[in-house]
Amino acid sequence: MLFSCGNPTSVIQQLASDDTLSGVVAYDIVFYRSDSGIVQVELTAPMMVQQGDDSSYLEFPKGFHAVVFDKYHNVASEISADYGIKANNNMVEARGNVSVENNRKGQSMYSDKLFWYQDTKMIYTRSQVRIVMPDKDITGDSLESMENFDEYTIYNGRATFEVEDN
User: Fold this and answer.
1) Contact indicator for 81, 92 with CB cutoff of 8 Å
2) Helix (H) and strand (E) counts for the chain?
3) What is the pLDDT of residue 6?
4) pTM of the model
C-alpha cells in the first residue's frame, strides 16, 4: 500500500515564482568604475544594502570612500562621507562629514551634503561648504565641481588668507 501527500501544482508554482529575498547586505565591498579597461574610480564601503531586486538602488549606511584616478592612474581626488545612497539615475548622495580631497593641489572641501553625478563626473552641494588650502580658507553656501576637484565654482564665497607686509 502506498500513501502520498502534496500540494496542488498552482501552489508550488506560486511559491517558486515569489522572491522571498527582500534585500541584500554585503560587507567590506569594493566597486570599480572603468572605461576601456582603465579604472577611473574605486569605491569602498564597510556595508552596502540593496533593497528588493532593484540593483540600481544601493545604500551605504556606514559610509563610503571613493578614490578618483586620472588617466595615468594617479590619485586625483578622494570623496568620503558617513552615509551614501546611489539612486537609479546614477547619482550618489553623500551625507554627514562629507569631504573631497584634491591630493595634487593639497586642498580639501568639507560639507554636510554632496551630490555626485557619475555619468557627468560632476559634484555639487547646495549646503554650506568650506575649502581649506595651505594659504587660505574659503567658505560659501554652495559649490559645483568636476569629481577630480581640480577646478570649482563656489557661490557667495568668503575667504581668509594671509597678506605679507612690505
Assistant:
1) no
2) 1, 14
3) 53
4) 0.78
